[in-house]
Amino acid sequence: MIKTSIFNGKGQYINGQWVKGQGTILESINPGYGTVFWQGTSATEQEVAEAYHAAQHALFPWSTLDFQSRANYTQKFAQLIEKKRHELANLIALETGKPLWEAHTEVNAVIGKINLSIQAYHERTEAKVTQTAEANACLRFKPHGVVVVLGAFNFPAHLSNGHIIPALLAGNTILYKPSEHTPAVAEFVMQCWHESGLPPGVINCLQGDVTCGKALLSQEIQGVYFTGSYATGLRIHQQFSNKPEVILALEMGGNNPLIIDEVIDLDAAVYNTLLSTLITAGQRCTCARRIIIPDSSQGDEFLNRFINLCSSIKIGPFDQVPEPFMGPVISHEQALKHIHSQQKIIDAGGSPLMSMKLLIDDTGLLSPGIIDMTHFVNPPDEEVFAPLVQIYRYSDFEQAITLANQTRYGLVAGLFSDNEQHYRQFYQHTRAGLINWNRPTTGAASSLPFGGVGLSGNHRPSAYFAADYCAYPVASMEQPLLRMPEKMLPGIHV
Ligand code: NAD
Ligand code: SIN
User: Fold this and answer.
1) Predicted pLDDT at 107
2) Domain that holds residue 11
3) Which chain regions cross the lipid bilayer (predicted)?
């Protein structure tokens, strides 16, 4: 394993400086080995308040800076990430446990986000002037103000970056709280912002758990850009129920279906089902949780091959040689909770085809689990963020669509089928923010919107459409000189 001396955290990043925090100890643990490798502190309420004042103070100069200057800072940031890509990939892998090959794809996404967000800013929030007989009708966009970004652990660099870059380009200033599971990656990313020369106060990073998150949300902020679970998203929505003036962009979980239909290439179906279900140890919001398979000999063949493939994948710590396909879940505690969830499903009527098991004590390393849910009455509509796959068998395509729609979530839905008519039918009857045909449910395109309906989101998709929730449109009717109209309204004599 790569050297695991314990790094000392720099503290909170407030007003362009690292402030050694006064709060409680926060530790980061590599879940593949179960060892602490980073130790820092959580932000105190006072530190949160100081960060808020810094962000508020920085707002006017930042939001009135010309767009190109703001974009230049983000480009400088991208260059620094490029220069330190190996260091960042190693840290992502060390902190989340995901294999190095996958951590590198996350770094690519961070870098790619800059130019895509600049393009999206122009396309979705470009100023426009239309000349009318009376005046110029001008459309321009303004930033919301000081916004809070709350990050999830599964893509500690990429997902927060997906809110931060568009928010900065639009002219907002930021209070950022990464996941408590991934403080070290956040600190590394903040140091890159620091080195990019970003003016003090434009971005501030406060470490900690729910307590820190709540303290941030109690400031006089104008927006919350959140990625995380439905339960937390709902709490945040309730907390702001008496503040409709605060914009909330809530990117939440999914209970995503994937239908296997008529396909000639069964190997491709099996391989792409594996990518849909087990990549990142099932810790992607886009992972297919429910695989809907025909109750036929072809369906049996698919299921047998899928079970065989799942049993043969390499699972291990991020730096194992040769490289594993799948690492651990984020912590040993989470692994135990997932095993408990599996047991609850089995106790309530699911038939285990393969059991998800803890592979090494004190780690988050789990083997995949597969449960047949076909005869389960009223299966739970819950996201288990783990390498746990539920199987449903169907007798005709209409039934497959009905099963796919049995969820209140609506993030991703997928179909593997060589029948185009079936895809059209599936598309028409499916309610989800992402609908894929013969592609894994995972691996979203940054050039498209990314967000769900139902319990998966609040209709403010991220990725290419993040520009929309980072700025509001201002309509101005403008004429350079105030003058009388050619004709006054009746009843007025000037
Ligand atoms: P989580 O909801 O536990 O935490 C997300 C963030 O919110 C963390 O920073 C956490 O500290 C903070 N938080 C928790 N409670 C809070 C509160 N009351 N007030 C303020 N902040 C609070 O989510 P997680 O476990 O980090 O991530 C996994 C979840 O994220 C899964 O449900 C997954 O589907 C979802 N996710 C969604 C997307 C998407 O784009 N739709 C992407 C990735 C992950
Ligand atoms: C996620 O954000 O959890 C997954 C995104 C993806 O699969 O590309």
Assistant:
1) 98
2) 7-253+456-477
3) none
